[in-house]
Amino acid sequence: MSEPTEELSTYTAAAEVGAVRVRRGRFERWWLALKKAPLSAWFGMIVIAAYVFVAVFAPWLAPYGEAEIFRTPFAPWDETHRFGTDQIGRDILTRLIYGARNTMGIALVTTLLSFLIGGGLGLVAAINRSWLDQLLSRSVDVLMAIPSLIFALMLLSIFKPSVLSLIFIIAVLDSTRVFRLTRSVAINVVVMDYVEAAKLRGERLGWIMRHEILPNIMPPLVAEFGLRFSFVFLTIAALSFLGVGIQPPTADWGSMVRDNASMIQFAQYDFKAGITPLLPAAAIGLLTVAVNFVVDWFLHKTSGLRDEH
Amino acid sequence: MSIDNGADEQNSDILLDMRNIHIEGFSDEQWHPIIKGVDLQLKRGQIMGLIGESGAGKSTLGLAAMGFARAGCRFTQGEVNFEGTDLLKIKPSQRRKLWGTSIAYVAQSAAAAFNPAHRLIEQTIESATRSSMRPDNDSRADAIELYRSLQLPDPDSIGLRYPHQVSGGQLQRVMTAMAMSARPDLIIFDEPTTALDVTTQVEVLASMRQIVEQHNTAAIYITHDLAVVAQMADVIKVLRYGEEVEQADTRTMLSDPKQDYTRSLWSVRSLEKAEAKSEDIVLSMQDVHAAYGKVKVLHGIDINLPRGKTVAVVGESGSGKSTAARVITGLLPPESGSVHFNGEALPPALNARTPDQLRKIQMIYQMADTAMNPRQTVEQIIGRPISLYHGLSGKQKAARITELLHMIELDESFLDRLPAELSGGQKQRICIARALAAEPDVIICDEVTSALDQIVQEGILKLLLRLQEQYGYSYLFITHDIATVKAISDEIVVMYQGEVVEQGLKSDILSPPFPEYTDLLLSSVPEMDPDWLSNLLNARTAS
Amino acid sequence: MHPVFITIIKRLGLGVLTLLVVSAIIFSSVTMLPGDFGEAVLGQAATEETVAAFREELGLDKPAVVRYFEWAGAVLKGDLGTSFSGRSASGSDRSRSVAEMIGPRLKNTLFLAGVTAIIAVPLAILLGLSAALFRNSWYDRTVNATTLTTISMPEFFVAYVLILFFSSLWNVFPSLATVDPSMPLGERLNRIALPAITLTLVIVAHMMRMTRAAIINLLASPYIEMARLKGASRTEIILKHALPNAWAPIATVIAFNLAYLVVGVVVVEVVFVYPGIGQLMVDSVSSRDIPVVQACALIFAGTYIILNLVADIIGIVTNPRLLHPR
Predict the structure, then answer these.
(1) For position A15, what pLDDT does the model report?
(2) Which of A69, B202, C49, C89 has the fewest CB atoms within 10 Å around its CB?
(3) Do C244 and B115 touch (CB under 8 A)?
């Protein structure tokens, strides 16, 4: 509220003071927000950008071919092999770079698919609120009663592990979480008077979804996308680490840790060789930390009071 | 300060002396002033009414009297002298010793302010037993006596109940007993009756006033309702934007306010439309029964809306007045009965109605905040019905939007604003413009002014009256506020528990003889007369 | 009957129903097996008779519903079926019963999870409570950033870093957590030190964050402000006003994290080659030993469902609205 300047005799509605802000373009608003972002968020954004760069330009950045095999397995770090070679003689640095592309790409596709399934059904359930909602919600309850890593392991024992089955299984299992979130935030929007006003106006369901509901549930969904991505990313890494995820010869960080884990025993004699298996694991950790930092800031930014997700 | 009460004042008489209080609140990553240098003196046994509109800082000032600032607020200047001690200078632990024992607090929402896990009596005597002013058994017996004198039903056993087991009005009285339990010198009442229905409010007010007088306790009574504060307070202080507007004793303030702003606070009460009769019925509900699932809400109601006139539907919460609106709009198809519009029966369900039928009945909501999509600009909000119903686009649409903005006394500068960038009154005006954009016959107004401050209310009511005069809209005006009813209606419908008690011309309904419920409802509406409550109670005990 | 009992019975019924549906899902996974599965298990050289005999043993000739009830009935009696491994094309059968394979490993897993829970639960609640009470202090911020980092790390990363420092570089703990029943307790604890620390780190981070959020949420209630204004001290507010209302959220947090522990155990067991059912399950997935996978999945899912059930029931019996109906 501002100073009580207007005289009552000259009262006009237009002069009434609301929470007037300086009007700014979308770009400008984002730039302002970015400038105020904490160090952790900046760190996260820079890391994500670097990862994306490496993933996109992998063939140009990698010194060798993805599955190229050299004579010495477990070669030490030197000029020809910056991080040495793995148990069958492949260049670790090359595998790390291609791994960024494969691991992130698969996780991204999986997350997108899970949002497509979970988000779509969640919206439908929130608007419908009848038997369909009941059916979907109960099914999701049951699916969520099985821990998703366990469920994924079980399904992978039946369907042979392949990139496609991996993407599909994880996306379906993860979509239950997306469904719950979308449904709950959408229900909060559906009960708003402006949605009722649109119904009273005679708007079609599709129009209401697109213009009234979707724009208002985007911020939590975007944040959730970040969180789900890290979760999917970690799940795929874990499955690959367990040997039932992404299969060789595709380079992938999870299986790289598994393949080279024994090298850690040599740390006493050659420290660099000892930490080699930790490199892909650290690459996974760094990305999820970065995503979490950015999401944390975004949540803080869009919800103001929300303290925890 | 406009009243000088200093000359003959005895210093020992002063209980609370707040000087030059400055409080800031934190929002948008910045500290903003909330209270900008207010003084407040209170004598022993004196009751001060603090009034002001939303954002005036009255609750913040009330809590400041305890030396307390809510999370996200801080004192930046000033002193709070309570019995000669500056509460802001002493240690938190010392301050805490005073809270609940010397200064007590009664919160707005009793339902939220009671701990759900403990019995009422345990919470009532908490402060008294902590200060070990008296043994536990004593304070229990005392609490029961307090319940009795607050006219709570079943005073001996009501304390054994849990908060969710008693009604809102009773809970508010238990909270008064809780505040009184340690016999404090000062009680802060923070909008204690705002959440209650008028008929309940009267009883709670009466019992609060009685017990405060009985124990000669000083009090600060915070409210936005001048008529309520007139019943309670010896002196009234008016606040606006964190500053004092004026202070005077209650009778002086009511009869002779010095400031324009103070006068405006009850100007809405002076607005009164001259009623007119009409036999041309545009909309009628006939023997409508409606239910939410198994819960029956409407038990056969008839309401007639004459063309170009305003029918006010009055009733308390749960009377079914909003449900009636949902039946008319088609959101809730009735179990039986019909809604006729321009002589034709409307299809009961929304999706069976034609676009034209939908267009002709428009609705304006109580909370303009939730009635507008926060992501759409004013242009999009008003423009949508224009393109949907009238197929206009481009320049024609733009011209029509501008025209509508002028009709609601705003201008083109508002086109690209989002709802968050409008004031409360402007938001409600945009909602009105959206309804007008459809070019309707009937506009249903659901409590459209009750969330607004007094001056803004007046502006909106005047606008609605002018639009009716110019364009001949018919209003179905749902409200619980009698002053608003007087201001805007031609006819009145009184509803109680899902039935229509009576419908008729304003002058007929508002003058005797009254049916029993109408009488209770009308007599419970506080008036600007400081003797109103006493007179009412006398009259009620007499009859 | 008292409404609390009715609510509890309803919740129990729902739990049993969920368990039934989940078991049906786990069971029906067998029917999704490709047709040539018999050959895959028995090897290319298997004769038609042995394959047919194998199919008959699986009961693939009977309707699915009948098989489900036979299977579920057997499971209730503790018979989890027979492993696929140890079979050969010739029809000779050296396979073992699943229950026999799982039994000792389940004990090991429970031992590891139990030790972790005993350390992690009190530690996490203590840290969460203190972070909530000293909200926005440097302590809170540090704990917050640390835990956010920890929950972002894959369990195997944490595990290998611990191995690197505490086993490889500075040999205090063994990197292989091989145990057998004959070992004395002290020796066993020493062997599982690293896996237990790994799990503790991960669980504490998750649980502490959730506890903190739940307590902050609770402290924002109007009745807590009222208690302050009634002069209650910090201790009184926590013990008398917040705690009675905190059982339900805290129980949910504990259950959620114990359930998380059950899953986290799978990866950690593989890293440390610990003979628990997590590792057994992963091995069986690789060798496609379906009966063992099913049994493990059933045990994991059952634990998960029961933990959540217990949390919900704690929530029900501490809810004053249900305990003292109108």
Answers:
(1) 60
(2) C49
(3) yes
The verdict on ipTM greater than 0.85 is no
**In this structure, what CATH number is given to the domain that contains residue B483?**
3.40.50.300
User: Bridge-partner residues for B104, per DSSP?
Assistant: B187
Q: Is B324 found in the same domain as B264?
A: no
Q: For residues B79 and B163, state if they share a domain.
A: yes
**Which of A96-110, B19-33, B97-111, C42-56 comes out lowest in average pLDDT?**
C42-56
Which strand ranges, in their side-by-side order, compose the sheet holding B47-51?
A: B103-106, B186-190, B218-223, B47-51, B235-240, B243-249
- What are B33-59's pLDDT values in tens digits? 889 999 999 998 899 999 888 778 888
A154 touches C26 (CB < 8 A):
yes
| Count of H-run helices and E-run strands, chain C | 15, 0
On whether both B310 and B256 belong to a single domain, the answer is no
pLDDT at res. B329: 93
State whether B207 and B336 are in the same domain: no
Asked whether the beta carbons of residue C157 and residue A282 sit closer than 8 angstroms, the reply is yes
What value does the mean pLDDT take over residues B287-292?
Answer: 92
Instruction: Look at residue B91 and tell me if it is in a domain.
Output: yes
Q: Do A147 and C209 touch (CB under 8 A)?
A: no
Q: What are phi and psi of B502, to 5 degrees?
A: -165, 155
CATH assignment, C105-286: 1.10.3720.10
Query: Token digits for C325?
Result: 């109906």
**Closest partner residue to A1 among B55, B374, B434, by Cβ?**
B55
Contact list, C272 vs chain A (CB under 8 Å): none
Domain around B63: 12-270
Helices (H), B195-331: 198-214, 226-232, 250-255, 260-265, 321-329
pTM for this structure?
Answer: 0.81
Average confidence (pLDDT) over B176-187:
90
pLDDT at B431: 95
Q: Are residues B346 and B448 in the same domain?
A: yes
CA distance B292 to chain A (A): 15
Distance CA B101, CA B131 (A): 7
Closest CB to B459 among A13, A192, A193: A13
Nearest to A13 among B330, B358, B425 (CB): B425
Chain A residue with minimal CA distance to B56? A1
Strand (E) positions, B335-457? 336-341, 344-345, 361-364, 442-446
* Domain total of chain B: 2
Model confidence pLDDT, tens digit, residues C129-182: 888 888 777 888 888 888 888 888 888 888 888 888 887 778 777 777 777 777
Closest CA in chain B for residue C219: B71
B266 within some domain = yes
Q: What is the CATH number of domain A37-66+77-302?
A: 1.10.3720.10
Q: How many CB atoms lie within 10 A of CB B304?
A: 17
Nearest to B253 by CA among B271, B279, B226: B226
Chain-chain contact of C320 with B162 (C-beta, under 8 angstroms): yes
